[in-house]
Specification:
This protein has 132 residues and is an all-alpha fold. It is built from 5 helices and no strands. The protein is 44% helix and 0% strand. Helix 1 crosses helix 2 and helix 2 crosses helix 5. It starts with a helix and ends with a helix.
Length: 132
């Protein structure tokens, strides 16, 4: 996926997070989800556009928007934290937001990723590579 494709997703993200209905994932329907293709470049692009403002370019929770957030965004580079969460937790918090896992609602949902499992899997793989 090219950067301009991701940029086209931004308006959809804004609309989707405004309370529209969302389709349940295959796992929520009791179906066996297909293993999505992982493209680290896609994950990096999505992260750069969507996650960097809060989590920072390197994932340390030091993005420009983090100054206004209490508590500060998660340091995604922390090995201990990375080891304490599985990919399902990351999928849930990324797709449904912080409130879905008992965390701050300031972590916004990305419901559009429910219909883009390859982008979500690539984003999770990118986040996993941030651990130092």
């Amino acid at each position: 996926m090219k950067l301009h494709h991701v940029l086209l997703l931004i308006p959809a993200l804004a609309l989707a997070s405004c309370g529209g209905s969302e389709k349940p994932s295959p796992a929520e329907n009791g179906e066996t989800p297909e293993t999505p293709e992982i493209d680290l470049a896609v994950g990096a692009e999505y992260y750069a556009i969507t996650c960097t403002p809060c989590h920072g370019a390197t994932g340390m929770g030091d993005g420009v928007a983090s100054e206004a957030l209490v508590p500060k965004p998660r340091d995604l580079t922390n090995k201990e934290w990375q080891a304490s969460v599985d990919d399902e937790y990351l999928r849930k918090i990324i797709q449904y937001g912080g409130a879905a896992v008992g965390k701050q609602p300031t972590m916004p949902p990305n419901p559009v990723l429910g219909s883009q499992p390859e982008v979500l899997a690539s984003l999770i793989a990118h986040v996993r590579q941030m651990a130092k």
